[in-house]
Amino acid sequence: MVNAGCNSFMENYDDLLEYQEDILTPKDINDLNWCQNNDIDSICIPNLRNKDDIINVRNILGNKKKNQIFSKIQNSESLLNFEEIAKNSDGIIIARGYLTLYVAAENLFTLQAQMIKYCHEYLKPVFVQQNVLDSMVSSLLPSFCEITEISNLVYNFVDNIMLSEETSCGDHPLEAVKTLKRICLEAEQQKENELFNNFQQLTSTNITVQSCILECAKKAAGELQAKAIIVFTSRVL
Question: Does the UniProt entry include the keyword Protease (predicted)?
Answer without folding.
Answer: no
